[in-house]
Specification:
The structure is a homodimer.
Chain A (H helix, E strand, L loop, with lengths): L1 H6 L11 H7 L17 H12 L3 H4 L17 H5 L7 H15 L10 E2 L14 H11 L7 H6 L2 H13 L15 H15 L8 E4 L3 H11 L5 E7 L4 H8 L3 E6 L10 H13 L3 E8 L11 H14 L2 E5 L16 H7 L9 E6 L13 E6 L3 H13 L5 H10 L10 H27 L4 E2 L8 E2 L2 E2 L3 H9 L4 H13 L1 E2 L1 E2 L10 E6 L7 H19 L2
Helix pairs in contact in A: 2-3, 6-20, 7-9, 7-17, 10-17, 11-12, 19-20, 20-21
Keywords (chains A, B): Aminotransferase, Pyridoxal phosphate, Transferase
InterPro entries (chains A, B): ALAT1/2-like, Aminotransferase_I/II_large, PyrdxlP-dep_Trfase, PyrdxlP-dep_Trfase_major, PyrdxlP-dep_Trfase_small
Pathway (chains A, B): Photosynthesis; C4 acid pathway; Amino-acid degradation; L-alanine degradation via transaminase pathway; pyruvate from L-alanine: step 1/1
Chain lengths: ~550, ~550
């Protein structure tokens, strides 16, 4: 019964993320799970939604009487918060944290001796080392009084010292402890703009750059700007990175899904975009923007330039803002593939500021550097009117500025050491070592998945993930039903309990109805990969032996 | 005419922040400025609102047809964004930035040779130096490979090296470049909880602490949780720090003002809270929370413990969440005053987790350290049910974590060097030097303001600001009207143009109707204070000479 609800949504159907919310207010609510992601992983939230539905209907029309003993309940909080899901740190990760505590308290009590977090693109948590030059510069900017001490010459590279001076000179009063301009320090934005120009071969304006604490706040800012109500729709890929569904839910908009085609290596078809756009419009939705994640998360596909041109043309023709998630631009593993920014593609088609509203998101958390903890990133916004830009600036100002270390790191990422700099060789060796290793890990894991019964896995051309499809036996699906769990969550939970490997069920990203996947990062260190492969293989065989029809 | 609109709101009237928004959708819109803050400083936004009103009424009921050439206009963005105001970085600051560029391009072209930013609590931008120990630890955590090198002993204090090791050992894999737990690194939360316990004499639970990128995102998170619609109200002091009005506007709630009493040193009367609460409830508003800023911003008052007990009792009785902005807890200048956290006050009354929902906001940006650029802070939430806490955790998870340097700094602020540590003496000297100097600066500026014709200024018992009241001559008010400007903005603009001193008009914080104020930080370095006083005095005299009735 449950399966028919979870898997029953038609591929072409138009999901309203806030459908469940509206259902709370309607006298005869539709099934709880008929919305994006099918929320099978979120039994807790489903319960809360149910509680809300069962609670006094007066809350919709008049303020509830104050509850003196408990002023905040799940029935009384913002339903958009209840609605939002973020599977990357959801139920499976909570279970992993409990197992980790168990391992610490009772070593040897579980069939594995460590938890391997393959749920999240967090390279340094799995042992990847930071790029030395970047950290040298950050340390010197944090404590500039050592810059002219003799010992510093022995501890830091000459070009890191020089770069730190350059950066300090770009900061008014050399005050790395001051709030900066709301968009970020102007000199750092100059550096980033120069880096974008060098990458694309087209001009970039430092005043178009907003530095942010990672890419996530930038995405939220754009959703906040574009979404007024559930009548505003955002076209998102399925599968997608759940920041998008979460942010759209938190801002009360409608996620309009377009499906990537697994058969053609997660191809993005403009005909599919068009179909979904028209269907949404026919339902009275004003579609405001198109999200494209390139390289893809969780899918790993790298778009061809030709395809990108079609997407640009589509956005221009249909009056959509193109929200280009380009945080994996450095993570390309397929030799025949190359990253092209959407701005470069649009400019090379002759389209300028008057033709297309385009936002490019970049982060210091990804790439070869993987500096997740530094929370640096930026968005480059082009094509917006001065009046709208002023509004974006105002919202940025409310939060004052992003953290200065993250700002500095964003400038370093877009302007790393160059040939001739003292650090260039060690920098290049560190960078190439990481990227080459990631490519090898991606291939090994992909091959391993493809060797397993009922699993097929597209190549990771880029990014940090594999998104294998599992064809689960009917018996496993029935067992999941009996456990009141989505089948992919059921599989991932069994995998975690047996191996300590943490992956995220496909339902957290969205997937074509009736298909099941999981996302697995390619980030465990290379010396651990063989053990992971053998654990995954053993687990999968015994799982299939148990549930094979 | 304009004056009657700006000053015409009755003190007891209940301002709906989203009134202007709703007016856009109504056939016969009320005056544009009849909402909190009167938005006189925001002529640009007023214009945009007007544009929106004049635009096609169809946008309210059905999706507008896509505008192919310009998909995003001020008419089509989220009206909550238009609604939001943040005067601390508003029109006056934009003018200051233009003047600064002018000074750079044409030195000597203006009657002053530098811009003095007294608009914002940003100590290090005005020359305050960071606390050495804090920066040593941050630098070592950024680049830990130098920790065991010989030269490091010569460059860094022994206890900073030891502390860095301790912190690294609290981070899984010593990975300062990894995303942390969504609430922040557990070991750092342990340290912060211990610091809170030492401060209050009551237990603190590390699981109640959420580390955030400064206090602002924490405030947004709570507003997001508590506000579902304009039917949800938040009691805020007037004058208030405009983060609160901005955040309430962005989340679509209603700001319920309560007035601080300027006559009694910005006293906070529970009778006033009660009156405003009842008035809001009679209008169908469900009042969810009370914001208290202690020490006060922009008012500088430090609440007496007795007064705090009354506030706690009021929140408990009325079922309100107490949102305690305690970011200035280290900034106390009045010898007879002492900071008491609301948690300590509630616990000392015998109230525990079951009696009161309480959130305390803290930041690394304020205090004696003033590390604004690091974007560190936390909120300690107590009294919420496990189900609601789970929702807060989920929202925190969507943004992954706050920046690790900010997290580390928050732990240092709550656990600075102790007697016997190598850095203790230099740390104490730096801290005391800054706080004593701030107290002197506050007194000098307060006396200067009070010596001026028509200006009265309450004492800054704490925080970083003075909020003098200006009694403007009728002629000045008429001139402001003629210039289509609020009188306080008119004064502040003249002040900036004449002296280079940037202050924020009182209308950005809210003020009793018919009164005019501005906020001026006490942060310029002490050697600059005499020149500032003389420039302010000369300006004020000539302004009064020009406009005296």
């Amino acid at each position: 019964m449950r399966r028919s609800v979870i898997g029953g949504a038609k591929r072409s159907s138009h999901f309203l993320l806030n459908q469940a919310h509206r259902s709370l207010l309607s006298p005869s609510p539709p099934p709880l799970h008929h919305h994006l992601g099918s929320s099978p992983s979120s039994s807790a939230t489903a319960l809360l939604l149910l509680l809300r539905r069962l609670s006094s209907s007066s809350s919709a029309s008049s303020p509830p009487p104050p509850n003196m003993s408990n002023p905040v309940t799940v029935q009384s909080i913002n339903p958009k918060v209840l609605q939002c899901e973020y599977a990357v740190r959801g139920e499976i990760v909570n279970l992993a944290q409990r197992l980790q505590e168990e391992l610490k308290a009772n070593p040897g009590s579980l069939p594995f001796d460590e938890i391997l977090y393959c749920n999240i693109g967090n390279p340094q948590s799995l042992g990847q080392l930071p790029i030395t030059f970047f950290r040298e510069v950050l340390a010197l900017c944090d404590h500039p009084t050592i810059l002219d001490k003799a010992e510093t010459q022995g501890l830091f590279s000459a070009d890191s010292i020089e770069r730190a001076w350059q950066i300090l000179d770009q900061i008014p009063g050399r005050a790395t402890g001051a709030y900066s301009h709301s968009q970020g320090i102007k000199g750092l934005r100059d550096t980033i703009a120069a880096g974008i120009e060098a990458r694309d071969g087209f001009p970039a304006n430092p005043n178009d750059i907003f530095l942010t604490d990672g890419a996530s706040p930038a995405v939220h800012m754009m959703m906040q700007l574009l979404i007024s109500s559930e009548k505003d729709g955002i076209l998102c890929p399925i599968p997608q990175y759940p920041l998008y569904s979460a942010s759209i839910a938190l801002h009360g908009g409608s996620l309009i899904p377009y499906y990537l085609d697994e058969e053609t290596g997660w191809g993005l078809e403009v005909s599919e975009l068009k179909k979904q756009l028209e269907e949404a419009r026919s339902k009275g939705i004003s579609v405001r923007a198109l999200v494209v994640i390139n390289p893809g998360n969780p899918t790993g596909q790298v778009l061809a330039e030709e395809n990108q041109r079609d997407i640009v043309e589509f956005c221009k023709k249909e009056g959509l803002v193109l929200l280009a998630d380009e945080v994996y631009q450095e993570n390309i593993y397929a030799p025949e593939k190359k990253f092209h920014s959407f701005k470069k593609v649009a400019r090379s088609m002759g389209y300028g500021d008057n033709d297309l509203c385009l936002v490019s998101f970049q982060s210091v958390s990804k790439g070869y550097h993987g500096e997740c903890g530094k929370r640096g990133g930026y968005m480059e916004i082009t094509g917006f009117s001065p009046e709208v830009r002023e509004q974006i600036y105002k919202v940025a100002s409310v939060n004052l500025c992003s953290n200065i270390s993250g700002q500095i790191l964003a400038s370093l990422v877009m302007s790393p050491p160059k040939v001739g700099d003292e650090s260039y060789e060690s920098y290049s060796a560190e960078k190439d070592g990481i990227l080459e290793s990631l490519a090898r890990r991606a291939k090994t894991l992909e091959d391993a998945f493809n060797s397993l019964e009922g699993i097929t896995c597209n190549k990771a051309e880029g990014a940090m993930y594999l998104f294998p499809r599992i064809r689960l036996p009917e018996k496993a699906i029935k067992a999941a039903e009996a456990a009141k769990t989505a089948p992919d969550l059921f599989y991932c939970r069994h995998l975690l309990n047996a191996t300590g490997v943490v992956v995220v069920p496909g339902s957290g990203f969205g997937q074509a109805p009736g298909t099941w996947h999981f996302r697995c990062t390619i980030l465990p260190q290379e010396d651990k990969i063989p053990a992971i492969v053998s654990r995954l293989t053993d687990f999968h065989k015994s799982f299939m032996d148990e549930y094979r029809d």
